[in-house]
Amino acid sequence: MVKGLDRKFTLWALAWPIFIEVFLQTLLGTVDTLMVSEISDDAVAVVGYSNQLFNALMTLFITVASGAGILIAQRIGAKKEEDARTIGIMSVSVSGAIGLVISAVLFFWPQTIAKLLNMPEDLMPLADTYISIAGAGMVLTAVMAALSTAIRNTGNTRGPMYVIIGVNIIHVIMNYGFIYGAFGFPVWELKGVAVSTLASRVIATVVLIMMFLPAFSRRITLPEFLRFDRKLFQEVLKIGWPLGVNMSCWVFTQLLIYMFIAMLGAAELAARTYMNTLESFCFMLGYSFALALQIQVAHLFGASRTREAYQATYRAMYIGLVVVTVNALVIFLVGGWLLGLFTEDKEIITIGVSLLGMNLLLQPGKMINMALGNALNAVGETRFTKYISIGSMWLIAAGASYVAGISLGWGLIGIYGCMIADEYLRGLLSFFRWRSRRWMTRSQAPASANASGGATAKA
């Protein structure tokens, strides 16, 4: 517990709504996978592959949203809420503009994009339908990401949680209707899943906007979304673009790994999609602590309380390690049964079961990496995390995966081994960087600037 900290910025107050939100998002993905598996394993492969594409494209606007979120928490910690308010407004408008361009490309050229990604030919008709419809909603995803990030970093992590609860309920009902023809819905199968995704995003965006307008002490008005402060936006990009590179390294290498797996066969691709769903339950609580930690550390850093930020990071990491390890062990014990809920294909189940033991090694590495990486990002060390991501993800997670999985013929086992090595290497490098405490000296600069600025204003 950090003494003297605003209650809404305590780790638990921040973490539990994020956990419920992440859990429900994961549940949404699981329900999607279960429902789509009723259509066919090919449909599952298309959804999994397409979602990797969408995640890759998200980095183009997450750069702005993530950088803005950190600065919002820092500015609130430094008692500069007007700056935080302006940063939040700009993040929404700029992210929306980028998302609009992405949506147009996906809607008009879905088959071209699928071919560039080496999508198997027999999956092309399904890919054309799903990418064009679900991809058209990327503008909504962009706005939702910016809104949720801004709201969370004001200390209100409950708001986005409530939105996700409502959206999950709506999405599941619509999925069921479109796949099975219930409630008078037409039987649209995979097309219906895409339409359901799009409709739920529309509803979530409207509600989040209503929540965002009063998020700061002075209510935001709609004309202010045209407001642009170049100096503040440069600060957002200074922190945000290395975060964007970091995230793009992850999603693009994951997309590349999916392409390698596609080279192994449709069964391996479906098995990886199912395993991805199971793995998400292992680390989601740890991820919630890591994301809450980032908000808390940014707030403490903005208030120049660096010693407390340093200690809070280790505490959150240890809690996360215990949680993800227990979760991974549970998945290891019941994973074979869970895979049987998704598919009856014995080959896919056998492949998935062979990866459950490796998941026990993967998840603790992810937790260490997430906690320390998020803490470094929160204090502005985004360039460091960018450099280690470029080196480790491309050389080990992607490059070595091709060698081990394809060239040496070790398949998914070889690819997973390289993913594990990447997580632990980045976690170890982040640990040494955090322990060096080099970032502490920079926290005094904002405080000094604020003090001198205040003195000038009074004069």
Automatic annotation (TrEMBL):
Pfam families: MatE (PF01554). The keyword Transmembrane applies. One of its GO terms (cellular component) is plasma membrane. InterPro entries: MATE_fam (IPR002528), MdtK-like (IPR048279), YsiQ (IPR047135). GO terms for molecular function: antiporter activity; xenobiotic transmembrane transporter activity. Its main location: membrane. The keyword Transmembrane helix applies. It is found in: Cell membrane. CDD domains: MATE_like_8. Keywords: Cell membrane, Membrane, Transmembrane, Transmembrane helix, Transport. It is a multi-pass membrane protein. Signal peptide: none annotated. The chain crosses the membrane at residues 9-28, 53-74, 86-109, 129-150, 162-183, 195-216, 236-264, 284-304, 316-342. This is Putative MATE family efflux protein. It comes from Paenibacillus phyllosphaerae.
